[in-house]
Amino acid sequence: MQIFIDSADAAELKALAETGLVDGVTTNPSLIAKAGRDFFETLREICAAVPGPVSAEVVAQDYETMIAEGHKLRTVAENIVVKVPLTRDGLRACKTLEEEGHPCNVTLCFSAVQALLAAKAGATFISPFLGRLDDGGQDGMGLIREIRMIYDNYDYQTQILAASIRSGAHVRDAAIAGADCATIPPAVFKALYKHNLTDSGLEAFLKDWKATGQKIL
Ligand code: E4P
């Protein structure tokens, strides 16, 4: 499964990319607002730090302006993916942009039929928001499973990008459900490699090694 980071904090993304485990980035207008910096400068820095797909979202709601915004976003860097909302105009813009060769991530997906339409529009990525469904008492992971089945039934190539991830358990379950990618907030990513038994096990190994009085270097 590809690991994307859900953030617009360019400095933090650069540091996380040093792990060699980050395959891409997703931003959204709220994350850009939180970062509090110039949109295009931020995108340029992120695209330079992470060579994989970097989603940048249009803010227009009508087809024509979405296309114009998508074209402008794609001039920022080769690895920009145009993020469009799952609306009538967003799907139409996705179809046009994809036909022109611009990869799109259809965002704010909350149902399997929405995901079906995104695949028919030729989207490179579909972003089902599982955490927000769970927050509302619905079954976010069930949605990932449904989309996986539908895409496999018809051999759609659209990649399932599990979004709105809240925990390591979400990452695990999305991987089990067959999501192609998960976009993970930095704090959740940093917690993924932590385990108390790893920490205590390492402490014991190092104590025993020290007692031998030997060195590797
Ligand atoms: C996905 O691309 C979105 O940016 C993101 O996952 C939204 O998550 P949230 O529900 O934590 O805002």
Write a brief structural summary.
This protein has 217 residues and is of the alpha/beta class. It is built from eleven helices and eight strands.
Share of β-strand residues: 15-25%
From N to C, what is the helix and strand string?
EHEHHEHEHEHEHHEHEHH
Q: Give the fraction of residues assigned to helices.
A: 40-55%
Count of beta strands: 8
Largest sheet: 8 strands, parallel, barrel
The CATH class label is Alpha Beta
Report mean pLDDT, rounded to a whole number.
98
Query: How would the global form be characterised?
Result: globular
Question: In words, what does this structure look like?
Answer:
The chain has 11 helices and 8 strands. It is globular. It has an 8-stranded parallel beta barrel, surrounded by 7 helices. By secondary structure, the chain is of the alpha/beta class. About 50% of the residues lie in helices and about 15% in strands. The model has no long low-confidence stretch (mean pLDDT about 100). The chain has one domain (about 1-210): Alpha-Beta Barrel (TIM Barrel). Helix 1 packs parallel to helix 3, helix 4 packs across helix 5 (about 90-100) and helix 6 (about 110-120) runs parallel beside helix 8. It has helices at about 10-15, 30-35, 40-50, 65-75, 90-100, 110-120, 130-135, 140-155, 170-175, 185-190, 195-210; strands spanning about 1-5, 25, 55, 80-85, 105-110, 125-130, 160, 180-185. The longest helix has 17 residues, at about 195-210. Helix 4 (about 65-75) links the parallel strand 3 and strand 4. The protein binds erythose-4-phosphate. Erythose-4-phosphate (E4P) binds near residues 127, 131 and 183.
